């Protein structure tokens, strides 16, 4: 009789030689033993290959030409055997009992398709960055109050893939990650999952999210956010009977207004804010939305100066707060 692992851990890696060993060790040190580790090397050009070889047969390595993280994760899942799937980015690490605690929740709540946890933010050496961690914790608290339905996730998503465990039947029903979305591909997947399954959370820090100089570029985040919003707006066009469809459209328009504002395309930001206002004028009661409205009337060059000044002040403040 063939014995299959209970949990499959999929680690997608591209040029993460500096961190991937720590990621793998954090899985091997889990209190849960019934685990297979699948590392998909997405065409790395650094010394990742040598580091993975050092683990021998304790991990399953899949090598592929560089095709992006979604393709790598899909390949990992396709080659996995576990009843549950957990994802870990190759620059993050887990606390020792993450898998055990998530598995316990999923066993007790059979209607839940996926569960995620809190995470803190650490620097390249693993030291907690308190300011970012505190900010993230506030967002987690807000997210718990809002819930994890399709409407709530269209407004705000504070899930990170390294914190997620998924039932295999959930993955198979929702389908693979979209290889055409360069970033925010996990947001797209959570949105799709929320239309079919319940999503739950373990409200404790079980993952260290590493902040470093080679994190995903902002341009990829911008493109991914826009592609995800447009993809789901098109889906709504084809499913006009969706519950709370007006609110969901409004949320995606505000997301687009924010994305274009951060990207410096203030005219487009204003146009999408105008679309949101046409659906729900109460969006202006949120002070943070006022900047997108101003983008409709203030010349882009002036608005960009204020935007860049605010970003500089924010970064300067964070620079002095790094450390435990």
Question: How would you describe this protein?
Answer:
- The protein is α/β, with parallel strands linked by helices.
- It folds into 2 domains: 7-210, Spore Coat Polysaccharide Biosynthesis Protein SpsA, Chain A (Alpha-Beta Complex); 244-319, no CATH class.
- It contains 13 helices and 8 strands.
- The chain has an 8-stranded mixed beta sheet with strand order 3-2-1-4-7-6-8-5, sandwiched between helices.
- Helix 9 (218-238) packs antiparallel against helix 10 (245-263) and helix 10 (245-263) packs antiparallel against helix 11 (266-279).
- The model is unreliable at 316-324 (pLDDT under 50).
Strand content: 15-25%
Elements, N to C (H/E)? EHEHEHEEHEHHEHHEHHHHH
CATH class of the largest domain: Alpha Beta
Ends: how far apart? Answer: 50 Å
Structure summary, number of beta strands: 8
In the CATH hierarchy, what is the superfamily of the largest domain?
Spore Coat Polysaccharide Biosynthesis Protein SpsA, Chain A
User: Which value, in Å, is the CA radius of gyration?
Assistant: 20 Å
User: Based on helices, strands and strand pairing, what is the structural class?
Assistant: alpha/beta
Tell me about the biggest sheet?
A: 8 strands, mixed
């Amino acid at each position: 009789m063939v014995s299959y692992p209970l949990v499959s851990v999929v680690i997608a890696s591209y040029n993460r030689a500096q961190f991937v060993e720590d990621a793998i060790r954090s899985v091997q040190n889990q209190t849960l033993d019934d685990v297979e580790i699948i590392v998909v090397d997405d065409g790395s050009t650094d010394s990742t290959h040598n580091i993975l070889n050092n683990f021998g047969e304790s991990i399953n390595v899949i090598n592929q030409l560089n095709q992006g993280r979604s393709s790598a994760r899909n390949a990992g899942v396709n080659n996995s055997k576990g009843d549950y799937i957990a994802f870990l980015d190759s620059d993050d690490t887990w606390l020792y009992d993450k898998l055990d605690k998530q598995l316990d929740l999923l066993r007790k709540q059979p209607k839940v398709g996926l569960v995620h946890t809190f995470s803190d933010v650490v620097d390249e050496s693993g030291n907690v960055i308190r300011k970012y961690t505190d900010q993230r914790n506030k967002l987690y608290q807000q997210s718990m109050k809002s819930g994890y339905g399709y409407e709530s996730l269209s407004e705000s998503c504070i899930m990170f893939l390294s914190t997620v465990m998924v039932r295999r039947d959930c993955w198979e029903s929702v389908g693979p990650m979209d290889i055409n979305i360069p970033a925010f591909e996990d947001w797209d997947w959570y949105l799709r999952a929320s239309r079919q399954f319940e999503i739950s959370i373990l409200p404790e820090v079980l993952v260290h999210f590493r902040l470093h100089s080679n994190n995903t570029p902002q341009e990829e985040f911008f493109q991914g956010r826009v592609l995800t919003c447009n993809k789901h707006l098109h889906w709504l066009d084809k499913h006009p009977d969706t519950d709370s469809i007006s609110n969901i459209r409004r949320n995606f328009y505000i997301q687009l207004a924010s994305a274009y504002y951060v990207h410096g395309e203030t005219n487009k930001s204003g146009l999408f804010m105008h679309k949101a206002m046409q659906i729900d004028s109460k969006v202006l009661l949120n002070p943070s939305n006022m900047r997108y409205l101003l983008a409709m009337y203030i010349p882009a060059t002036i608005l960009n100066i204020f935007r860049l000044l605010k970003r500089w002040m924010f970064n300067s403040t964070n620079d002095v707060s790094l450390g435990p």
